[in-house]
Design a protein that fits this description.
binds 2-amino-4-trifluoromethylsulfanyl-butyric acid; single chain; 277 residues; Creatine Amidinohydrolase; 4 helices; binds cobalt (II) ion; alpha+beta
């Protein structure tokens, strides 16, 4: 028998635990996520002119922290499970959870910056790829296809569909290009909880997994590798890299299921959702 999925209708003023049930949020939740998501998108927009050869990832992390706090929010990653930075910055063969450092970006790098401002208790989790200087054609194609994977997945995000419909659309497009889809990390429910049920995997079969219902909030955040899907964790306990050292790309949006589709909370107000910017 398929595992049973539990749904629970929540309101913004209820204490929200991570109890395994899928939360169905109301209008106040949508409003909270709209504001947090917009801030996440505005932070990524503001980073565009700073992501250039020679900038250190610690400098970018400082900008993220300062902007989040200036807007009345808190970076949700700061102090999260011992993580001490305000965002994750993952270049080239780093799949995700790259730690900001004194190392500078260089011409030709592709870089993911993943921010999660928490604003009035709501989490705006979003990431985009940035191209540093002149980037080769193979890397640019990976970035383009990864963004297409995210958006093809989101086209499936509507009531009556299942999470597997989103996963399948992503996997199909990535594998058409002979890319590997990372299995070790996935999207997740979110709201007043940063990482909540359900798990949103990026490979799967149509019609499988939990049914999508209005009021569900979750991220879709495919990690796509030019080479094999396999990942390994570095000794710092955070940085995930491709085992074959092939390039990896990722984009992430936070969304809410509506009556007839989905609302993307983290769309760029400036139309800078994907490069070139
Ligand atoms: N923002 C990441 C996500 O997409 C989570 C980062 S947690 C951290 O879910 F601790 F690594 F920062
Ligand atoms: Co994220
Ligand atoms: Co996320």
């Amino acid at each position: 028998m398929a595992p049973m999925t539990e749904y629970v209708t929540v309101t913004a003023d209820m204490p929200q635990a991570r109890d395994g049930a899928i939360k169905l949020h109301g209008p106040a939740g949508f409003e909270g996520m709209r504001r947090a998501g917009r801030l996440g998108a505005e932070i990524l927009d503001a980073l565009v002119p700073h992501v250039v050869p020679g900038v250190t990832t610690a400098e970018l992390d400082d900008i993220v922290r300062q902007m989040t706090i200036a807007a009345g929010g808190v970076p949700a990653t700061l102090g999260y499970r011992g993580y001490t930075h305000s965002c994750c910055i993952s270049s080239n063969h780093v799949v995700c959870h790259g730690i900001p450092s004194e190392k500078a970006l260089k011409d030709g790098d592709i870089v993911n910056i993943d921010v999660t401002p928490m604003l009035d208790g709501w989490h705006g989790d979003t990431s985009r790829m940035f191209l540093v200087g002149d980037v080769g054609i193979k890397a640019r194609r990976l970035v383009d296809v990864t963004y297409e994977c995210l958006m093809l997945g989101l086209e499936q995000a509507k009531p009556g569909n299942h999470l597997g419909d989103i996963s399948h659309a992503i996997q199909r497009h990535a594998e058409k290009h002979r890319y590997g889809v990372v299995r070790d990390f996935c999207g997740h429910g979110l709201g007043q909880v940063f990482h909540d049920a359900p798990e949103v995997v990026h490979v799967g079969r149509p019609g499988t997994g939990p049914e999508l219902r209005p009021g569900m909030f979750f991220t879709v955040e495919p990690m796509i590798n030019i080479g094999r899907a396999d990942v390994k964790l570095l000794d710092d306990g955070w940085t995930a890299v491709t085992r074959d050292r092939s390039l990896s790309a990722q984009f992430e949006h936070s969304i809410g299921i509506t009556e007839d589709g989905c609302e993307i909370f983290t769309k760029s107000p400036k139309g800078l959702d994907h490069p070139p910017y």
